[in-house]
Amino acid sequence: xxxxxxLLTIGNGKLGEGIHVWSLPAVSTCPGRxxxxxxxxxxxxxxxxxxxxxxxLDWNYQQSLQTDFADRMATEIRRKGCQVVRVHVxxxxxxAEYAEKWLWVMRNRPKPRYFFYTRSFKIADIAPTLEQMAAxxxxxxxxxxxxxxxxxxxxxxxxxxxxxxxEGEEPELLDLRFAVRRxxxxxxxxxxxxxQEQGKAENCGDCxxxxx
Length: 212
Ligand code: SF4
Prior knowledge:
Layout: E1 9-10, E2 19-22, H1 35-39, H2 51-65, H3 69-80, E3 84-87, H4 96-108, E4 113-118, H5 127-134, E5 139-145, E6 158-164, E7 176-179, H6 195-198, H7 204-207
Parallel strand pairs: 2-3, 3-4, 4-5, 5-6, 6-7
Antiparallel strand pairs: 1-2
Helix pairs in contact: 3-4, 4-5
């Protein structure tokens, strides 16, 4: 009997094992990427460059193109009893059709809590779907920004996550900050910095700020 490979995996060290994960290849699926996020993307380094991981992400991308992707994802979420689903540890909503598939999944499987960070809000035909996701009770939407990008309008339910790569950056608008490793030291301002990056939380399961 042929057994179909699952779409979701269990969270890595930062996320914790209570969170299910869906990812795509980084950069090529990120139409809203900026020079800063491309240059500092964690998903182009370390374990993400292993052949097995790259092959898995390519396979995921191929699955996302299939017409039954949303149905398979929804079925798997129910079968696995997912509590929290992190969409795109790597990758992003690469076009409107793909974003619509995820909106369908969230509407039809509202039991887990979904969360993601995205730069695809910059893409005119994807942004409305992200706003519809942000209006769902089951979904936490973070717009990712950095020194190269800004947000003209913050839709209801959307929060802002800022990626800091230089010491002197003083962003005016943000709800959460991520920083490159060298800026995660106590001598730098740590306000709103992700607790896991500060060493105050072991993982996202321990913290929950982004999805509760
Ligand atoms: S703030 Fe908390 S939930 Fe969000 S990424 Fe950091 S550890 Fe994870």
